[in-house]
Amino acid sequence: MSAETGAEISVVICVYTEDRWEDILAAVSSVRAQSLTARETLLVVDHNPTLLERLTKEYGEAGDVRVLANAGPRGLSAGRNTGIGAARGDIVAFLDDDAVAERDWLRYFAEGFEDPRVLAVGGRTLPAWASGGRPAWFPEEFDWVVGCTYRGLPRGRVRVRNVLGGNASFRRTAFDAAGGFATGIGRDGDKRPLGCEETEFCIRLTRAVPDAVLLIDDRSVIHHRVPAARERFGYFRTRTYAEGLSKALVARSVGASKGLESERRYTTRVLPSGVARGLRDAVLGRPGGAGRAGAIVAGVLTATGGYVVGSVRARRGGAAFSAGPIGDVDGRAGDVRSTGGEGAAA
Fold it and tell me: What's the CATH code of the domain at 319?
């Protein structure tokens, strides 16, 4: 419990594959080692009975860890909604299953909630490259490709449009106001590298609660493992294209004005500076400069292509997702509040 806020924090970790067994154990251990003790850790297993049984055996006698089956459709959004419904804390924090949190991660989250207007606090996610270091061609401006904080985000504790889902926390009342994460938009294991479900949710949240404050505090640090397969340009290209598809769905749901507000600054200011920096490094003979500049250009083009394709699909077939139900402690689906507004999902 936070002495300052009196709030208790539940940590939700969504898991889906036994291939990440050691990562899952490390993630749970990092929560247990926090300087501010979590009320509980919830492991939500995404339609994998073998992993569910194995984790239940591992933590069955532990009072601080609960293992649950995803009560909704396959995918990260429904898994998060299951965790939200089962959580007992006043604040619900999310940690990726292949990440470890630094010792004061939850303490800095709790400090942000001292202000009653704050409904969400996100943190800083650093890449842990499988190869031991950043590939020379990989631009920091695109670290979101591997689920990490990228160059261009503000530093310190600052107000933002949306937090990043793998390292974030919300008041429970945020879900009472805005419903759950949208299903059909986020990840489904490694099969569909979409994203943006937290962006769409945060925009819905601030529409439902116009005076809500959402923060990022870069002292709340986690380290996110980046496997070798995600250090390759093929994955970079696939993920940026999928981001374009996802942004089209977000724009369809909440309108392009809010859905692309931050992205306009990113593409008109941050990325051109990154290209210039890469070209300058190339002229100075520094390794990877030309590659980074080229990757930024390629990333913009593939994301734009994905956005165009996604927009056409959305116009033809309507929004392909909806705000997911919040499952209760027993795994039953509860209702979510409808959030109207421009382009809201049906």
Answer: 3.90.550.10
Can you give the pLDDT at residue 246?
82
Q: What is the pTM of this model?
A: 0.87
Number of domains in the chain: 1
Task: Please report whether residue 229 resides in a domain.
Answer: yes
CA angle in degrees (0–180, nearest 5) for 98-262-250: 70
In a domain, 4, yes or no: no
Task: Round to whole Å and give the CA distance between 224 and 119.
Answer: 24
The arithmetic mean of pLDDT across residues 181-186, rounded, is 74
Give me the residues paired with residue 121 across strands: 169, 215
* Domain annotation covers residue 340: no
Please tell me the distance from the alpha carbon of residue 297 to that of residue 330, in angstroms, as a whole number: 48
CB 86 within 8 A of CB 100: no
Measured in degrees and rounded to the nearest 5, phi and psi for residue 134 equal -60, 130
- What is the pLDDT confidence band of residue 247, given thresholds at 50, 70 and 90? confident
> Shortest CA distance to 345 belongs to which of 249, 261, 262?
249
Could you tell me whether strands 9-15 and 91-95 are parallel, antiparallel, or unpaired per DSSP bridges? parallel
Beta strands in 102-190 (DSSP E): 118-129, 157-159, 167-171, 182-183
Q: Is the pLDDT of residue 342 over 50?
A: no
Amino acid at position 286, single letter: R
Which of 88-97, 244-253, 330-339 holds the top average pLDDT?
88-97
Structure token digits, residue 144: 């979101």
H-run or E-run covering 221: strand 213-226
The answer to whether residue 338 is domain-embedded is no
- Which amino acid, one-letter code, is at 226? V
Tokens describing residue 314: 């959305």
Domain span including residue 65: 9-333
